[in-house]
Amino acid sequence: MSTELHRRRRRAPKRRGASPHWLSQLPYVIVLCGVAGGLVLCSLNYFRKGSGLMAAAVLFGALARLVLPPSQVGMLETRKKWMDVATMTGFAVAIAVVAWVVPD
């Protein structure tokens, strides 16, 4: 394969109105920051608040996966949509239940 042909294949044409690549990773970064913030709160002996923040962040990820198109969810898209939403919702509920049940 010639170099010129290889260069032509690598360059994808810009679509009009296409969002930048980093913008499609924004929901994933928000979820990641929420979980990291929850872990920091848990390490500072605010277990319920930290767990609540983690549950809210994961639930936000499920909602983002449900509502946004596949081009805008970034790394939140790993499987089929219904499986991603069900898994993240299950994890969020499990984290919230653990935060509620564990005594002070």
From TrEMBL:
Question: Which InterPro entries does this one have?
Answer: DUF3017
Transmembrane stretches in the record are 21-47, 53-70, 82-102
Keywords attached to this entry: Membrane, Transmembrane, Transmembrane helix
Pfam families given in the database record: DUF3017
**The protein's name:** DUF3017 domain-containing protein
User: Could you tell me which species this protein originates from?
Assistant: Actinomadura fulvescens
The root-end lineage is: Bacteria, Bacillati, Actinomycetota, Actinomycetes, Streptosporangiales
